[in-house]
Amino acid sequence: MPRFHRKLERSAIGFVLAIIGVSAIGGFVEIAPLFTIDETVEKVPDMRVYTPLELAGRNIYVREGCYACHSQMIRTLRDEVERYGPYSLAVESQYDRPMLWGSKRTGPDLARVGGKYSDAWHVAHLNNPRDVVPESIMPRYGWLLGNTLRTDDLGASLSAQQMLGVPYTDAMIANAAADAYGQAAPDSGQSSGVGERYGEATNVRAFDGDPGRLTEMDALVAYLQVLGKLTDAAQKQATEANPETAPQVEED
Amino acid sequence: MGHAMASGSHDPVTGRQTTGHEWNGIEELDSPVPRVVLFFLAVTAVFAVGYWILMPAWPTGLSYTKGLLGIDQRQLVTRQVEDAAAARSALTNRIATEDFVSLAADDQVMTYVRDSGRTLFADACSACHGAGGKGGPGFPDLKGGSSLWGSDAATIAETIRVGINSAHPDTRVSQMLAFGRDGILERDAVLAASAYVRSLSGQKLTNVEQGRVETGRTVFAESCASCHGAAGKGQPDLGAPDLTDTRWIYGGDAQSVHASIYSGRQGQMPAWEGRLTPAEIKLLALYVGTLGGERP
Hints:
By secondary structure, chain A is mainly α.
């Protein structure tokens, strides 16, 4: 053995290959089985994809670096479950490409922020956090209200997601720009297609308060309001595990 | 250096073998790895074997070894949440089942409400209503009793449960029309109504406003009284606030009142049923009552 090692460490290329081979074992044993083990990603039939507007908001979330201060991952720890709600399931980020779990919380976790606050609050808060939360240290994002949302590239964006395995249909790709506009303009002709393609439970409203104009604020608020709402699998699981303490899932 | 070199010579000072590399007369000692490092390496290897046996570890194709201890982080946290809830249950069960009058009269309950209500309020409510419940433009002051639907604990609990203009089927509704923007009233009528509304709460009006009050009275009777009442005292059932008091959600100055009439108001409060347990909702309603401030 020492003789073999002595020989190996004296061959630069051979030693590099040996290091790569040995470290790959760890990766292979830890990562590869996740693709074959059934329970890695829960099977949830009601899981829906992001609408074009929500996806545009997600891109803005990435662009502005929100993930640097906000995680989207409720861990299996009591304090997190009691504050944020049921722990995150793998299926909830099934269509997140890339995932935005994050590991740093300067601000709170956002995995279940959807529906927790009103649109008006989100708009006021993003415009200047100090207006609603005086002690906040979050930067202001006032330009989101001024910037018109770019929609001409949304079809391409959906198409790229489709290539990565997100089940966008060709009709969703073809109507991406119109659906983005319609979701934030409930009285417009384009709004009905959003419900048809993405489900009637989809939020269709003027997120930034102005239905006449599609802004980056519309997109980001639409995205924030759907976080944790793409499926209620986590709430259902929590209710089954513990009907006494879990809040009841609404039946409507 | 391509070829393995022959082992070097003995170092005269330490007596150890050298690696055989030589740079300008300097050679490198071929010292063995220290024993203590090898010892800890062996300890970690033994620990790993023990860990594999006790804890979830090795993949087996479609599943994985579960480990003898049967530890599952998800079950563990579910149990911890359960245990914590059980530890609180003496008080939370009372809050969930007893009526507000007896709860509010019980010191033990109210001490608990003040204590854990503060945490719950800070996470769920203070983003909009402020840390102390003072509110802000568009977000009502909870201390001042401007609650449109009533300020008693049962009413507040119901508001928390269903929200205002929310997606909940039983939501409270408060929809002020955009009288100006949607062309229901002419520009002058909006200005007149605004002046009249401000006069209702006894505010000091400008001379220009004074001149509009009489027209405003007519406009109010025709367009506003159906919800806000002939005297402007409001109708909680319709989500129409009292305009004669000094409490304003969106502000009582001329510009704010004009903006409310011109663009309408559809303020929203999310429904908390589903996110909070019924006991937590009642606890928050009791906590809001402890925030202080005079009530009408």
